[in-house]
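Re: the request from the purification team.
They wanted to know what the chain is likely to look like in 3D before they choose a buffer screen. I agreed to run a prediction and write the result into the notebook, where they can find it.
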Amino acid sequence: MKVVINSDFGGFSLSDEAVREYAKRKGLTLVEERNEGWGDNTFYLNSIAEENYFSSRDFDRNDEVLVEVVEKLGEKANGPCASLKVVEIPEGVDWYVEDNGSCRKRSCPKL
């Protein structure tokens, strides 16, 4: 099974380009709110409302579309402070996403 991980210090996030590509492939309608100072924009499903907030940090790391987007875009898929890569986890290995307290999450085998 392929899984997307952040291989660097910092939070898991996608670039705006990667979020747009993910939504396009999933058939989702996103509304984009420009953030001048931060560098990445805020996305919402269908309309700008707090309950429609759309964050790549919430994606399942083994989502096939996410894997495809990261493989296609390579480094262009990286959001702020992210260095994303696709890794292969052998079938039958249980895994989970771990937050090490520094906004960094990684996929780890369950022992």
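For the purification team: DSSP finds two helices and seven strands in the chain.
Please add any questions underneath this entry.
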